Amino acid sequence: xxxxxxxxxxxxxxxxxTAVLALATLISAFGSSFQYGYNVAVINSPAPxxxxxxxxxHTERYNTPMEENFLTLxxxxxxxxxxxxxxxxxxxxxxxxxxxxxxxxxxxxxIFSIVPAVMMGVSEIAKSFEIIIVARFIVGICAGLxxxxxxxxxxxxxxxxxxxxxxxxxxxxxTIGILCAQVLGLRxxxxxxxxxxxxxxxxxxPAVIELLLLPFFPESPRYMLIQKGDEKNxxxxxxxxxxxxxxxxxxxxxRLEDQSERAEGHLTVVSLLSQRSLRWQLxxxxxxxxxxxxxxxxxxxxxxxxxxxxxxxNENDVxxxxxxxxxxxxxxxxxxxxxxxxxxxxxxxxxGFGICCGACVLLxxxxxxxxxxxxxxxxxxxxxxxxxxxxxxxxxxxxxxxTTEMFRQSARPAAFMVGGSVHWLSNFTVGLVFPFMExxxxxxxxIIFSVICLVTLxxxxxVMPETKNKTFLEVSQMFAKRNKTEIKLxxxxxxxxxxxxxAEKATAF
Length: 509
What we know:
It is built from 25 helices and no strands. It is mostly helical. It is globular and about 70 Å long.
């Protein structure tokens, strides 16, 4: 048997987790993704004190208490401005990452965290609840950018055999952010009349840390080579990330991707929507992002306390049950990091949406009968926890992973822009509509979520291919069959397989 060339050697050698790659992953995820999760849950526990502040401020200004309907409207705005800002942040993804790069956009994005953190921190001193609402919109822009740019950045830094695991790290930090907000929101820590402004302002600390440390780590080699044409610095960055000098095989694979894209033309958002060769990829990210958000996960996080109260949990114990749910979420996301490369993306999506679907049906039954059977309240809590487990292993982390893998370099920013817009609009819709659903449909609200989970599951089962341990070109080749198109490599008639064989020969010398 002939001796293996360098690029044919076992993938574990080529795909090791170096210190540079690990630190770049942790710093970018903590500085950006953590804030997304933190701001999802940060106003949950201190909500009564914040509403009291709104009412007190209004009374001091106009010598009359705030009407209940107006207070409800202001609070709904405080909640919903965050995902609305996230939607506008998603619209900024493509132009910013193409102009400033992936790392550069993350650094620029810290403006949208530090400024609103200061605004929320001084809101009580300034006696202005309007500042909080505006700040929630601005920090939502930060979350909209980071939720798309961090997975893109890490997906392009990672070797193909670690792309799934590292692609889940942003979601892991989102869940850690949620848990930290829940812990800090305990009544005896910061979730009280004196601590809530500090709690809101703490979101700026991860941004400052990222601003100081991330400049020392590489920009995406793919961005530098394919979009900037800077082969020298792209190779240096890749060598730092991989920990050795021989990165010729990956450089060749990136050149092939560049060659293929030049043949097809670089894509804008408008052209992405009409591109036949990307039709099923685009449909897939829309379905996955809608399924992820409309499955009810943010109904759980935004209104967790009221769900537990309706399930019969004692008022004093609600906050601790919420923290326990957050801890389960973190634990299961960690589990997903370790199993995604062995189990694959598709299986985790099927398991995740399947578990969520079943949990929503059981939760409906439990909430319907808990008044006549007191022990049903425990079943309700168990259903919420089971739902969180299902979402944490599949529905939450995998969509961003496969979005990175299904699109090549020039189409990726536009794809994340489309997927992110769908994500945040769906998030906004649930945050705004769920209280009315809960009021009018009661426990039957979750039947709607179960149907959405089932539809998403069927789509994944019938349409989605497995993308683990595949290059971006190989994934494109799989979708080309469904799209009934061919991948072109420049003016050459070579197939993808033949081109990769040429890359093998080039690496041997």
